[in-house]
Write a structure and sequence with these properties.
alpha/beta, binds iron/sulfur cluster, 12-stranded mixed β-sheet, TIM Barrel, binds S-adenosylmethionine, 10 helices, about 20% strand, 12 strands, about 325 residues
């Protein structure tokens, strides 16, 4: 499947829930969600049917996200259904890691190939404040559990939050010194609850290069520019949605938990898939690919066009 600009679209992100057990300050408001009723959220069978149609059209990689995917009831069943799809090369998940201690082994057995785990701070107090209810020790235990369960090439994702965690860039990056994982720093995007945050919160990924002397470029991985220091086992990735557009390499479609296919994270455009089957479903997926914009709205407008908050789309 290709879009109108010749980009190959082979990556589907599926948000399996809008709910989350954390309330990260840049992603959700304090009260959480509850806007959509249970019946508005796609059932597991519907998610699997859409995924199967997308894979038949050339999607090779699926990432499960949310909200927090591990709070979705039946998530292991869904993983099993998707992992069995012929033609799917990789099933991955982005998680806050809080429930991985219990679930990492089962996720592995259910066919998940790789994990991205979010980790914005190594200070227990700051982590608790940032997530409003998270415990750093749970996430660190989750990272260990993932390793013990056999997950490899795990990515730890930290959002750059100016004046909040920018004094920890070196400590976070150094997690890649002794472990074969990638610590990836992501520029904060002005979407949802943080769209109106002051400019000093939005920090360029260059701050990492300044904070960690000696990083040497070693290539790219998807939208991340990779660096390492000779002797380190892992890598440091910089993801720059703000300071350096990567839209020319975009290969993604995003399915929201309520069944809308988004051609672009930052566009308000959504193609409803619920209730479609067979050729109609395939045609709607192809239409979403065809409607991908050349570039997202962030650079030109300074803020996202999407009315949804991040936990309602799936980061
Ligand atoms: N709950 C899971 C987690 O936190 O990993 C998955 C969903 S979360 C929305 C996915 C990723 O989006 C997280 O790494 C989060 O830090 C990131 N994210 C949320 N809001 C963001 C924003 N405004 N800019 C950049 N990244 C953001
Ligand atoms: Fe939940 Fe992830 Fe959003 Fe944090 S970033 S509130 S963990 S969905």
């Amino acid at each position: 499947m290709t879009d109108g600009f010749g980009r190959v679209i082979d990556y589907l992100r599926i948000s399996v829930t809008e709910l989350c057990n954390y309330r990260c300050r840049y992603c959700m408001d304090e009260t959480g969600v509850g806007k959509r009723g249970h019946e508005e959220i796609l059932r597991l069978e519907e998610l699997a049917e859409i995924a199967a149609a997308a894979v038949a059209l050339g999607v090779k990689k699926i990432r499960l996200t949310g909200g927090e995917p591990l709070v979705r009831r039946g998530i292991l069943d869904l993983c099993r259904m998707l992992a069995d799809l012929p033609g799917l090369e990789e099933l991955t998940m982005t998680t806050n890691g809080s429930l991985l201690s219990e679930l990492a082994s089962e996720l592995r057995r259910a066919g998940v190939n790789r994990l991205n785990i979010s980790l914005d701070s190594l200070s227990p107090a700051r982590f608790a404040d940032l997530t409003r209810r998270g415990r750093l020790s749970d996430v660190l235990a989750g990272i260990e559990a993932a390793e013990d369960a056999g997950f490899r090439h795990t990515k730890l994702n930290a959002v750059l939050l100016g004046g909040v965690n920018t004094d920890e860039l070196s400590d976070l990056a150094t997690l890649a010194r002794d472990r074969a994982l990638s610590v990836r720093f992501i520029e904060l995007m002005p979407i949802g609850v943080c769209a109106d945050w002051p400019p000093e919160r939005f920090v360029s990924a260059d701050a990492v290069l300044q904070a960690v002397p000696g990083l040497e470029p070693v290539g790219t991985d998807g939208v991340a520019a990779l660096y390492t220091i000779p002797g380190w086992k892992g890598t440091v990735g910089l993801i720059r949605p703000m300071s350096c557009g990567f839209c020319d390499r975009c290969s993604r479609l995003r399915l929201t938990a309520d069944g809308k296919l988004k051609p672009c994270l930052h566009s308000s455009e959504e193609i409803p898939l619920r209730g479609l089957h067979g050729d109609d479903l395939s045609a709607a997926i192809l239409e979403a690919a065809a409607r991908k914009p050349r570039q997202h709205a962030l650079t030109a407008q300074g803020r996202s066009d999407s009315p949804r908050r991040m936990h309602e789309i799936g980061g």
